[in-house]
Amino acid sequence: MNNRWDRPYPEGLRLPIGAQDSGPALVLDLNSAADGGAGPFGLVIGARGSGKSEILSVVALGLALGNPPEQVNLLLGQGREGSALSGIENLPHVIGHCVANDRDDSEVDFFHVVESEIIRRREIVPAGGDFRACRLPALVIIIDDADSFGGEDTISAIVGLVDRVGHAVGAQLLISVGDLIGPAADRGAVASYRICLEALSANGSRQTGEIPDADDLPDTAGHGYLRLADGSVTRFRAPHTSYSVHTKCVPEEVAGSGVALPVALSAVLTDRHATYARVAEIRRRNGMKKDPADVFPNLSGGFDFAPFHRIGDVGDLDVKYRWRRKPYRDRLRVPIGVADNGTRVVLDLKSPAGSDSAPIGVVTGFSGSGKSQILMSAVLGLVVENPPEQVSILLGQVVVQQTFNQIEELPHIIGFYPELSSQMIEPELWEPSGIAAEGDIFDVIDNEITRRWDVVRAAGDFRSFVGYAEAVDARRPPIPRLPALVIVIDDVDQILVFSEENRAKFSKVLDRIDRLGSVVGVHLLCSASDLHSFQDAVEAVRTYRIGMKQFSPRASRQIVGIPDAYDLPEYQNYGYIRTAGGTVTRFQAPTSSYRVHSNRIAEEVEGCGVFLTTALSSILARYHSNLVHDPHSWPDEG
Which residue of 105, 140, 147, 610 lies most exposed, with the fewest beta carbons within 10 A? Predict the structure, then answer.
């Protein structure tokens, strides 16, 4: 994979899409004409069942196999569920994915994503400049079944954007349609290349590829013609991607059934990208020309969560020792990474008065920069070192099967919103758990702050949660035990951007946590692409901020006060943290997205291991369950 991903741009945008009738592979060059390619806009045209989705899948997977995410990004749009694009949305190269029939306004949302990304690129690339000199990856926008994706205005607007500024900002567009009749003919007029699959008639073939033979192509999907801007036409047959493979690297849902090829490749490339990122960083730091994997054979096990937290075999985790009772001053301190000087960067979530901390943390960065890894590392670090009686966690994520699904079994979780986007639109369809079932996440947080305030005030005149917790530890009756509450929300901006009501509720929550969080033991940590949708609310409260790789120097200044987060390495887990007092530190966070092997943890597929997050959740839940049933086994005072 290192050799595949070491090709220079623009060679990486040249990929085989099938075999010619004469035998050799047919190579499609997606680069713009100015770079000697066929881009920036291609059409795949053919009748239903002719293989249009397969062609798009071949292109997407070919780009991912031939380029690292730092060199090529993908934006995917589907007009319907179940196309061949399904399954590749988890590639590390994908920065956005939309299925049009998810919601009535989904195609509009997708256009805004495309427009925002192109505007961002135009702000970075100077007039007359080259996007490659600005270290921007190429952007390939792929839309399947554009006929049903949305209104003609939506698709035409995307085509117009790419046609006008695509070459300047490194954007390419490839869409599939059934024909070029009516308004769709305008798209054909600006297409720089066409792939014509089986047409319904000779007339339809001429309209799509200006050749009459497409209606005589075999019924088998994948046969077609490639017509370039110079008028050259080549007949070819594309490979299939819609089949299952068997590999020990990816667990099978049903034993013996295999795994869909796109799903398997997405999993393998995601794991490989983590290693590739470490290789690239070692090269950068040491000016190495030799592959660091040859010098450091254990590189793939590098900066991972378990060794960072001094965990050997996860199955042998000494939970009793980790959860031993500590003085409150030693609780709620969680390391999130390592600074350039080798020291640990530690978050103190207690945010005591007069300290350099704050009860609110905001993590920003573009997709793939490692925002979710920061949140996951903080959560796992807390639960490994603190029992549920000392720390409770409320989780929220925008999209189901996103960040936190593998840890919802943790005994610390008192509420989980698995799909906040659906909750805000169709509350009757979402399936929250714990206190999340009581309603809207911002209302639940507001009510919980009020409940805790009543408990703390009834117990005495405590000026901080530190004093309350120390009184509980001193066993001064009748003070009830009240665990600290850490609220973690991933991609919070996505539920704020289109809703004034949500922004108002979020602003109220920020204000109450800022004023009362250190008294009632409530802390908020959230992530967002940027501060655009809630900057005023954030500026009005005390926060610490973590800036991962940013869209622009200006975005970096907004989040951490300096432009340097724009120049961070273009892969996950590097960032700057700015404390409430203004101190800025560059650091690298560990990754938790990997599999572990242990004789004490059952594997779904032998030899594949278990995700670290799943393993830790299972171990801690099992230990806590035994603890509840046998209170005498509670860890001794430490």
Answer: 105
Taking a C-beta distance cutoff of 8 angstroms, is the pair 468, 461 a contact? Answer: no
Please tell me the distance from the alpha carbon of residue 284 to that of residue 605, in angstroms, as a whole number.
Answer: 37
Domain-terminating residue out of 302, 320, 347: 302
Rounded Cα distance, 114 and 162, in Å:
10
548 plus 467 within the same structural domain: yes
Domain that holds residue 471: 358-588
pLDDT in tens, 221-280: 788 999 998 889 999 999 988 888 877 666 666 566 788 888 888 888 877 776 665 555
DSSP letter assigned to residue 506: H
CA dihedral in degrees (246, 252, 254, 258; nearest 10)? -20
Asked if 267 and 234 sit in the same domain, the reply is no
Distances, alpha carbon 350 to alpha carbons 117, 507, 525, in Å = 38, 21, 13
Considering the domain architecture, whether residues 58 and 203 belong to the same structural domain is answered as yes
C-alpha 410: how far from chain center:
22
User: In CATH, what number is assigned to the domain containing residue 207?
Assistant: 3.40.50.300
Span between the terminal Cα atoms of the chain, in Å: 48
How many residues belong to the chain? 638
Please spell the DSSP secondary structure of 72-123, one letter per residue.
EEEEEEESSTTSTTTT-TTSTTEEEEEEGGGSTTHHHHHHHHHHHHHHHHHH
d(CA 341, CA 332): 24
Hey, how many other C-beta atoms are within 10 angstroms of the C-beta on 282? Answer: 17
Q: How many other CB atoms sit within 10 Å of the CB of residue 460? A: 11
Contact (CB, 8 A) for 51 and 238: yes
pLDDT above 90 for 39 = no
Query: For residue 609, what are the β-bridge partners?
Result: none
pLDDT digits (tens, 9 = 90+) for 81-110: 666 677 788 888 888 787 765 444 445 567
Count of alpha carbons within 13 angstroms of residue 577, beta-carbon side: 26
Dist CA 270 CA 64 (whole Å): 10
| Cα–Cα distance for residue pair 630/586, rounded to 1 Å | 45
Tally of domains within the chain: 3
Coil/strand/helix, residue 317: coil
pLDDT class for 374, splitting at 50, 70, 90? very high
How many CA atoms lie within 13 Å of 44's alpha carbon, on the beta-carbon side? 27
Q: Are residues 266 and 178 in the same domain?
A: no
- Radius of gyration of the chain measured on its C-alpha atoms: 26
Give the other-Cβ count within 10 Å of 319's Cβ. Answer: 18
Q: Are 131 and 158 members of one domain?
A: yes
Residue 284 has a CB neighbour count (10 Å cut-off) of: 10
Asked, for residue 621, whether it belongs to a domain, the answer is: no
CB atoms within 10 A of CB 20: 14
Q: Has this prediction a pTM greater than 0.90?
A: no
The answer on 139 and 50 residing in a single domain is yes
Mean pLDDT value across the chain: 80
**What is the predicted pLDDT for the residue at 638?**
38
Give domain status of residue 615, yes or no: no
